[in-house]
Specification:
Strand content: 25-35%
Largest sheet: 11 strands, mixed
Number of strands: 15
Shape: elongated
Number of helices: 8
Radius of gyration: 20 Å
Helix content: 25-40%
Structural class: alpha+beta
Strand order of the largest sheet: 1-4-5-6-15-7-12-11-10-9-8
Oligomer: single chain
């Protein structure tokens, strides 16, 4: 999180038990009377070890966390849990705690993920597009030309949504330099890229952070081939390929065309909720 630390006031917490063992971390930042986990991240949520922390402990941890924030003048906690596809083992005790604490669901993004351990359910239209694009000579490869991809991405986001990427090119290059084994850029094209995607590798899940296409890439339907190839690359070593959210405005607006495109590759829904607790 350090690369954008200047944008947020850090309020992250470390929780220890009676023996002095570290049993939980909460990435958090604050603004006024609200503390959030975490508005600078796709998700935040309580991070706990695989052992020593069980259901009743999570209740105690969250009560202590909320008490600490309350005692330090905060009125609301906005909490984005770690989606289940990113945890090493099942760990949704915090969702039960949200219910027990009377938390309100104030956001709900819908992502799409492929199970890389199950048969691929690609629809016929997408399958034909992949075959035709491959037969036309389009190839997918790993690239380090982030500058060219970023121009493609910025143009597409400005054209479609009037916004810029969350990361600047310099920030992405900094992240790549710090995590060279965890970030990959894939492009599809012939003599130049017509489609591209940045992939983050996180535990058992590969996450597509950014996707962009040129007019040529859209006309020749390069994106299905690109994403299908990425899925093939990580099948066997990872459990999921997460294509990211198809929603904006805290989940209130759904891009149905984008969702259908991901569904055509066999992806199904994963919810990214936001809970708000009145402290």
């Amino acid at each position: 999180m350090d690369y954008h630390s200047d944008r947020f006031t850090d309020c992250s917490l470390m929780v220890t038990d009676g023996h002095g063992r570290l049993v939980a971390l909460l990435p958090a930042e604050c603004d006024g009377e609200t503390v959030a986990s975490h508005r600078g991240l796709t998700y935040g949520g309580l991070i706990t070890p695989e052992r020593h922390v069980y259901g009743n402990h999570v209740m105690e941890i969250m009560e202590a966390v909320c008490g600490w924030f309350r005692d330090n003048g905060f009125r609301w906690l906005r909490y984005k849990p770690v989606p289940h596809i990113y945890t090493a083992v099942p760990a949704e005790e915090d969702l039960y705690v949200m219910f027990r604490m009377g938390a309100e669901v104030t956001g709900c993004h819908l992502s799409s993920a492929l199970s890389l351990r199950a048969p691929r359910l690609i629809n016929e239209s997408t399958r034909q597009a992949i075959s035709a694009t491959r037969a036309s000579g389009v190839r997918v490869s790993v690239s380090d030309d982030y500058a060219t991809f970023w121009r493609m991405l910025e143009e597409r986001l400005m054209e479609r949504h009037g916004v810029m990427p969350v990361h600047t090119l310099d920030e992405m290059l900094l992240l790549v330099s710090r995590f060279p084994e965890n970030i990959r850029l894939y492009t599809a094209g012939r003599d130049h890229a017509g489609a591209g995607a940045v992939v983050y590798l996180a535990g058992r899940t590969a996450h597509v952070q950014y996707i962009a296409t040129t007019e040529e890439g859209r006309r020749e339907r390069m994106l299905p081939l690109l994403l299908d190839t990425i899925a093939e690359v990580y099948t066997g070593d990872y459990d999921y390929l997460d294509f990211g959210a198809s929603t904006t405005d805290s989940g209130r607006t759904l891009n149905e065309g984008l969702l259908m495109q991901k569904s055509g590759l066999g992806a199904r829904g994963v919810v990214y909720p936001t809970y708000t607790i009145t402290l």
